[in-house]
Design brief:
It is built from 14 helices and 19 strands. The chain is of the alpha/beta class. It has 3 domains: about 150 residues, NAD(P)-binding Rossmann-like Domain (Rossmann fold), CATH 3.40.50; about 160 residues, Dihydrodipicolinate Reductase, domain 2; about 80 residues, 2-Layer Sandwich (Alpha-Beta Plaits). The strands form 3 sheets. Strands 7, 9, 10, 11, 12, 13, 15, 16, 17, 18 and 19 form an 11-stranded mixed beta sheet that branches. A 6-stranded parallel beta sheet has the order 3-2-1-4-5-6, with helices on both faces. Strands 8-14 form a two-stranded parallel sheet. The protein is elongated. The structure holds NADPH dihydro-nicotinamide-adenine-dinucleotide phosphate and L-homoserine.
Length: about 425
């Protein structure tokens, strides 16, 4: 009799239920594509009091009983975080189970070790859902684009923050209302600080940079700023100058090193990433042979992410059918990273000032001393009778801009440096 693949779920929240529903709804097509039947054997959860609408006998709070069960072939980890996910995934691999995970924090921090473990055991470890929700990004980077020198990648990689920024611009929504909506729709992480402070995007861009560069980027070497300081005022100024503000994850190869950064970024409205709105994510890549490529789709939510998880499960299932394992592509730790200080780009600056003679001159003097030249500048009087200076610089060095702003903020005519946003055009 042909084998039936037995699946154990670790976690059954937003992503777990999406993946489970797809296995149920598209069962016949999936069986046909794999060549083998499958069944969900056990589901590990924390809270036994929740009504799940699924056969209650499948559920257990003893997650070790899933990773230790010799009859389970594939473990789908959709708990999130490192503890207990890392221990459970490691145990599953040690017990000979293929693993599919949606956990970016786990892969960003422990990917190298876990992929090596999977490879040494002849097992699959797939994590397509960890980056970009439903968009296929990991497989194209590992395979179809792997022959390229991937010079630069820029991505909108977090659905929650893109949803918030879009709602703030299109609906003039309040930041906290938009965040609450994103949480209600199942886009946000268990702790949404991870979304809004760019931590989630940092995990994702470091995973992409690790695959592209062939070595794991240490997550603490990713420069990171979130969107909590982006205001409706900055969004409006950006629009008036033909730009939109997006939270981008950016990785650029600089010789043998990679600079990986996450921050709110002004991009021209004509850039393909500028029209990626709401929960949609996109990754724009420049490769030396392929040129520019962009992938886009829904970056969070139950169904799109469930789709990515089940795509990985199909890969595993086909390998089980063929009697082997697929494409665990191991990478070592220790990717060299380039310092943020050496970045050269254009900056948008908004500075609150005393609306007095010589204010402009005093600020311009500081910029001049640091070799920062201004491309556009506006000064306006606010209702409070204070003033506001908004400017775009020509290309300048990050270290020079930070040094200049550190001086500017102490000028008697300056109340505060309200916003600094980097601008990227390609
Ligand atoms: P949820 O919080 O919705 O679900 C987490 C599940 O894990 C729940 O079923 C919870 O149990 C279970 N769980 C949590 N801790 C434990 C524990 N200690 N022991 C047993 N079970 C536990 O998270 P998501 O589904 O949103 O996210 C899961 C993973 O997918 C994360 O890594 C996330 O980053 C990633 N991801 C999420 C996306 C999204 O759009 N939400 C998109 C892409 C990736 P219980 O149900 O009992 O509370
Ligand atoms: N919280 C994440 C987001 C989930 O909003 O993009 C998808 O990884």
């Amino acid at each position: 009799m042909a084998k039936t693949i037995r699946i154990g779920f670790l976690g059954f929240g937003t992503v777990g239920t999406g993946a489970f529903r797809m296995l149920q709804d598209n069962r016949d097509a999936i069986v046909k594509k794999i060549g083998l039947s499958f069944e969900v054997a056990k589901i590990g959860i924390k809270d036994t009091s929740k009504e799940r609408g699924v056969d209650p006998s499948l559920f257990t709070t003893d997650l070790d009983s899933i990773v230790n069960d010799p009859t389970i072939d594939v473990v789908i980890e959709v708990i999130g975080g490192v503890d207990p996910a890392a221990r459970l995934v490691e145990a599953a691999l040690k017990h000979g189970k293929h693993v599919v995970t949606a956990n970016k924090e786990l892969i960003a921090k422990h990917g190298s070790r876990l992929v090596h473990l999977a490879k040494s055991k002849g097992l699959d470890l797939h994590y397509e859902a960890a980056v970009g929700g439903g968009i296929p990004l990991i497989q194209p980077l590992k395979h179809q684009l792997a022959g390229n020198d991937l010079v630069r990648m820029m991505g909108i990689l977090n659905g929650t923050t893109n949803y918030i920024l879009t709602m703030m611009e299109e609906e003039e929504a309040d930041y906290s209302d938009a965040l609450r909506e994103a949480q209600e729709k199942g886009y946000a992480e268990a702790d949404p600080t991870n979304d809004v402070e760019g931590i989630d995007t940092g995990y994702k861009i470091s995973i992409l940079a690790s695959i592209a560069g062939g070595k794991q980027v240490a997550v603490n070497e990713v420069y990171r700023e979130g969107i909590s300081k982006v205001s409706a005022t900055d969004i409006a100024y950006a629009a008036s100058w033909g730009y939109r503000i997006k939270l981008l994850g950016i990785a650029e190869m600089i010789g043998e090193a990679v600079r990986v950064r996450v921050h709110p970024t002004m991009i021209p409205l004509t850039h393909p990433l500028a029209s990626v709105n709401g929960v949609y994510n996109a990754l724009w890549i420049h490769g030396d042979f392929v040129g520019d490529v962009m992938f886009s789709g829904r970056g969070a939510g139950s169904d799109p992410t469930g789709s990515a998880v089940i795509g990985d499960f199909l890969d595993v299932g086909r390998n089980i059918f063929a009697g082997g394992s697929g494409s665990a592509i191991p990478y070592d730790e220790g990717m060299k990273t380039a310092p943020m200080d050496d970045l050269e780009t254009t900056y948008y600056l908004r500075i609150q000032v005393e609306d007095k003679p010589r204010t402009l001159g005093e600020i311009s003097m500081v910029f001049g001393r640091h070799e920062i030249s201004i491309a556009e500048m506006q000064m306006r009087t606010l209702p409070s009778e204070k003033g506001e200076i908004v400017c775009l610089t020509h290309k300048a060095k990050e270290s020079a801009v930070q040094a200049a702003l550190a001086e500017v903020q102490w000028l008697p005519c300056v109340s505060k440096v309200a916003t600094t946003i980097r601008v990227e055009t390609a």
